[in-house]
Amino acid sequence: MMGNTAFDEINEAKACMDHVYDQFDPRAYFRELKKLGYAIPSAAKPIFQNLIGHLQQRRDDTVHVLDLGCSYGVNAALLKHDMSMPELYQHWGQNRQADETPEEFVEYHQRFFDDLDEPEDIEVIGLDVAENAVAFAKEIGLLDVGLAINLETQPLPASAEEELALVDLVTSTGCVGYVTEKSFERLLPAITRDRQPWIANFVLRMFPFDAIEETLSGRGYITEKLEGQTYVQRAFASVEEQGQVLEQLREEGIDPTGKEAEGDLLAEFYLSRPIKDAAEVPIERLFAA
Length: 289
Ligand SMILES: C[S@@+](CC[C@H](N)C(=O)[O-])C[C@H]1O[C@@H](n2cnc3c(N)ncnc32)[C@H](O)[C@@H]1O
Known about the structure:
Largest sheet: 8 strands, mixed
Number of domains: 1
Order of helices and strands: HHHHEHHHEHEHEHEHEEHEHH
CATH topology: Rossmann fold
Bound molecules: S-adenosylmethionine
Low-confidence stretches: none
Strand content: 15-25%
CATH architecture: 3-Layer(aba) Sandwich
CATH superfamily: Vaccinia Virus protein VP39
Helix content: 40-55%
CATH class: Alpha Beta
Mean pLDDT: 94
Oligomer: single chain
Number of strands: 8
């Protein structure tokens, strides 16, 4: 799914989950990730909500979110409907009738999400290489726009430019590493055409963010990391995975003692904003309690 040699090599340390990313529905994804306590969307939710709140004050209008690596609409479900990961695990993990048709399955989930409140005034554009996942999230209404594209290998289709020009906030969880600076290079002309969206990435510590930071800096962005904070992405899938990741981290000069050595893959939070916005409200003030 990628095209970046440096990240390809780092990814080899991680367990491969590709088989659950592009199924007709999210059940296998949630089943597999529940076993590993996949939790990064939960950790990201209050941070994204905070950013949406700030952007809403500035715009006084619907905030348009572009979720990179949106999968089956996980962040959209959490942000639009104020759901939690345990609720999603429960909802998408339930056993329904064995003879249910795919159409009935989709209708059931459409109705379920239609009936939920939408406390945030947001629209979510989801981008992911996984066509089935994007189609499902769009059909059940979690995504307002679904873009099934791989910007690592293809240019941005002209047909996506209008929608992307509306974006106020780019989010990602569990996606950098699959996407690299290439995807950002291809996105930036469209997303910065009319607005200067904030870009909020949760990134595993094993993936250096420098190249993406440099690409964004070329467009007048400054990237800040929330210092001293790490967020649990998931448990290691095996002792082998943990060993490989610890080795990778040490090779990169990152000390895993008391962190990944304890048993979880950890992410950090990077916020990239136009220089003027970052100067107006420093990152510490954005997240002051
Ligand atoms: C670990 S999952 C994270 C999904 C979701 N953001 C979450 O946190 O639950 C990684 C996602 O990245 C997607 N992905 C992989 N390569 C990609 C690419 N080149 N462009 C966009 N998405 C990609 C996968 O299809 C998958 O949905």
